[in-house]
Amino acid sequence: MGTNKRYADRVDRQMNARVIEMAMRDHHPTSLTDEELELDVEPLTRTPKPRRARAWVRYNTTPVLLDVEVVAWTEHAVAVRWRTPAGREDKAWVWSSAVRPPVRL
Question: Domain boundaries in the chain?
Answer without folding.
Answer: 8-100
